[in-house]
Amino acid sequence: SRSWAINHTNMSAATRTRVLRLYRHALQHSRSWAINRDIWREQAVALRARFDANKTVYDAHKAEQLLQQGEAELAAMKHPDKYKPCTALEGTKWERNIPPGPIACKATPEEEAALNAHF
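^ thats the sequence. predicted structure below, dont judge the formating
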């Protein structure tokens, strides 16, 4: 019946979360190997095709086996120096033009007297 097919195709919430996390991490880590956006996009489409090819796996044991293989492959393919967008935390532009701290902006007594006299 139709209700059986709907219940049969739903994976557990935990498995779904693991699959989504694996896909997201694989996608993020692939940027470390191909910074050129065009090359990375081709790799992202190929990665999505790999996940889509297994989206109809209903056997929990087979799904667990595929997840373990995927996690092992991700661990083996991790880049030693992960790509960081230049404006992200610890990126190449991070804190390049930060405003000076309050001590550097503190006026000397002479400057304060001149400002107070002016205003």
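Residues 13-33 form the longest helix (21 residues).
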